[in-house]
Amino acid sequence: MFRANNPTLKSWVNVPAGNDFPIQNLPFGVYRAEGGEPHLCVAIGEHVADLYVLSEHGFFDDLAIERNIFRQPVLNDFIALGKDKTRAVRNRLSEILDDDLETWDASELAPFFLIPQASAELLLPLHIGDYTDFYSSREHASNVGAMFRSAENPLLPNWLHLPVGYHGRASSIVVSGTPVRRPKGQLMADGAEQPVYEPTRQLDFELEMAFVIGKNTELGQTVSTAEAEDYIFGMLLFNDWSARDIQRWEYVPLGPFLGKNFASTVSPWVVTLDALEPFRVDGPKQEPEVLPYLQCTGARGFDLQLEVHIAPETGAAKQVCHSNFKYLYWNMCQQLAHHTSNGCNIRTGDLCASGTISGPTPDSFGSMLEISWKGTRPVAMPDGSERRFIEDGDTVVMRGWGEKDGIRIGFGEARGKVIPSSI
Ligand code: CA
Hints:
Layout: E1 28-32, E2 38-44, E3 47-50, H1 51-56, H2 76-80, H3 83-96, H4 110-113, E4 114-116, E5 121-122, E6 131-134, H5 138-148, E7 165-167, E8 173-175, E9 180-181, E10 184-187, E11 196-199, E12 203-204, E13 207-213, E14 232-239, E15 242-243, H6 244-250, E16 264-266, E17 271-272, E18 280-281, E19 301-302, E20 305-311, E21 318-324, H7 332-339, E22 351-353, H8 368-371, E23 379-380, E24 386-387, E25 395-404, E26 407-419
The structure holds calcium ion.
């Protein structure tokens, strides 16, 4: 048990009921105060706590961490210190913010290091060198297979034997709040004889989570499932925006390309794997048995609730999905073991996304492709309009959290508004 996870802790900083960021969470991010430079921070209630300001007041001096590590535009160097140090910082923060402990009482300094989140610009918290997207939800893969191949036999032969994935584009990953321009691309409409180059007509979200690599490996090195969590710093929400019509025309035979790489939206907070400890659960039973290098012991799933809302430009928002990270067939340890099983090296700050996280029932499907079943079952919006896919002016909002013993460990939001294509 980490000190910071103790459910009896209370902070002297106000944390409203239902807030994602109690003292037991302390997710890491990067913010810029108005006119200021980027500093590392954690979320506490409706505030961010500035780690550089705390370091300047000597709060981390005995941890032997260079102060400038907290005055950077990304978390990478901080994460690369290793879990011994980053855990010590999180535990120290839980002391600084603790209602009960006087050793590190910092409440008098609050005006100097606590900033309302509303006035803090939260930045993309990582330099993401590489990004990999998996396809690890059996329900999602089965739905897509049933729509486009065979309802009786929806999974391809490899699917139950390895966590299928592909290398995505890191440069177009944006932080929550960044507008997403409707992409143009080459489309081949049903029944058409020639493709056209037009704005996508089937813009979609994919409800995913991503884990952040916390430690480099050397080229040629493998990471076992037992070692994998040492290499995972934490997790965030991930919307893998997708243009279904572009994707469908281009993907043969090499897979996703321009239908995927125009944007992905992440939440600004990296919730540590340590903070998610209370939510461990067993994953689905894997049958047939997987090869030895993919076998795992212990509870490697996490019970994390996930929601997607669509908010039109005018009118009320509609919740279109409620899913859970625990549904994933392949867990993060298996994904990472498979990723490195050929000696492919990984680097601090890399992201590995889960793939769309769909559950067993239609209200838990994680993309409009599935929710509207290829557009055949439109979703009724509160204003009387319908959605088969995402329209210009719509904002897609993803939220995620675990809840246990009255403590809610949340991820904040991954939010993106769709703006019209430039033609
Ligand atoms: Ca995806």
